[in-house]
Amino acid sequence: MDPAIDFCTQLGVESFWFIKADRVDEKWSEKRIKSFTRRAVRKMIASIKQSQASILPHIYPITELDELLRMQDNFDYILYGDPYGLPSLAGLGLQTGARYLLLVGPTADFSSREKHFLAQLKAIPLSLGKRRLRTETAAVIITAKLLTFLKEI
């Protein structure tokens, strides 16, 4: 996950939410979470120095995808990577300055339950290409795809 944190920080991501996906059995202990968070903060600080960015992203606690229901009003748009999603962002009315939540699932993709839940949130499925991507790569691609569309990079 280090490369995604590095590259997305350079691109101007304001926060990271790590989600417990249905298809990931890995358990994270409190000690492991603290260690990961410390390492991520060090990586983000190095990234903002290198890219001359001014925003140190916030890291939210690991959460269940269902928690997004509680937070959905914080975002104007929710986009998620999906192999069968829209090939382009054209025609969706996306705007610079809007609040976006970009989601990528595990390498094995979101489960059907999670996709149903995302549909209830009116999240927009976005294709990231024909290849199966690692989560880290997908995070960078979806960020770059949105910023390119908005002409911010």
Report on this structure.
The longest helix has 22 residues, at 30-51. The mean pLDDT is 91. This protein is 39% helix and 20% strand. Helix 1 packs parallel to helix 2 (30-51) and helix 1 runs parallel beside helix 5. The chain is α/β, with parallel strands linked by helices and 153 residues long. The strands form two sheets. The chain has a three-stranded parallel sheet with strand order 4-3-5, with helices on one face. It has a two-stranded parallel sheet with strand order 1-2. It has five helices and five strands.
Which key features would you list for this structure?
alpha/beta, three-stranded parallel β-sheet, two-stranded parallel ribbon, 5 helices, 5 strands, 39% helix, 20% strand
Question: What is the compact description of this entry?
Answer:
This protein is α/β, with parallel strands linked by helices. It has 5 helices and 5 strands.
The total count of strands amounts to 5
N-to-C SSE series?
HEHEHEEHEH
Number of helices: 5
Content of β-strand: 15-25%
List the helices and strands and how they pair.
Layout: H1 2-11, E1 15-20, H2 30-51, E2 58-64, H3 68-71, E3 77-86, E4 100-103, H4 112-120, E5 124-126, H5 135-149
Parallel strand pairs: 1-2, 3-4, 3-5
Helix pairs in contact: 1-2, 1-5
